[in-house]
Design brief:
Length: 205
């Protein structure tokens, strides 16, 4: 998780997951593996008329890219001996000889920011086991990407740090899922979280 700059309008000073917008390059950057079939189906369906497998993969690719940009971590596999050609925003993977791995990613939740916030987002949350991280010991904060500090945090260990309610809710959902699905290998319902009357409501995709 990373600590957002205290001067930001949205969630200043809070510890959050890496994340951001999908970019055009996320549609075309080299990758290996495939999304879990159930996740792909849910992601496509959740995008409505514009949904496609290509766009679903781009959502997961953007999560992989943003994780690298904000924390330095590379979710993927070692490439062959030839240098991987990639768009500029994916150059860190190319330099390290790592190809992002879609099979490492699981879709775990979707949430919409409550009304009345300075910014609102319709966000998909993804998870990957640390064994799929090429360089798990090389956390690097990138203030230019809004995070002043990054660190690994244990479930529920929030002493001395500020964490948004939705982040706690997502971590609780993930902890519950891991009890039944420790390898994140099973096809399981994905909660869609909204806020009404200051309470989280869930339906399932």
């Amino acid at each position: 998780m990373g600590k957002r700059n205290a001067n930001l309008v949205f969630m200043p000073g809070m510890f959050v997951f890496p994340g951001g917008r999908t970019e055009r390059a996320d549609l075309t950057a080299p990758r290996t593996g495939s999304l879990h079939a159930g996740d792909a189906e849910r992601l496509v369906k959740g995008m409505g008329a514009k949904g496609s497998l290509r766009r679903a993969e781009a959502l997961a690719m953007s999560a992989i890219r943003e994780t690298q940009e904000e924390t330095g971590l590379l979710i993927g596999r070692q490439a062959g001996s030839d240098r991987v050609q990639a768009p500029r925003s994916w150059d860190a993977f190319a330099r390290a000889g790592v190809v992002p791995d879609l099979s490492a990613i699981r879709y775990i939740a979707r949430a919409i920011t409550p009304p009345g916030r300075p910014r609102r987002f319709d966000t998909r949350f993804f998870a990957a086991d640390a064994r799929h991280v090429f360089n798990p010991d090389e956390l690097i904060a990138n203030p230019e990407e809004e995070l002043d500090e990054v660190r690994w945090i244990r479930f529920g260990d929030f002493d001395g740090i500020k964490v948004p309610d939705i982040t706690v809710a997502i971590l609780d959902l993930l902890a519950d899922r891991l009890k039944d699905d420790p390898d994140l290998s099973r096809d399981m319902p994905v909660p869609f979280i909204r806020v009404e009357n200051r309470r989280f409501l869930q339906t399932f995709e």
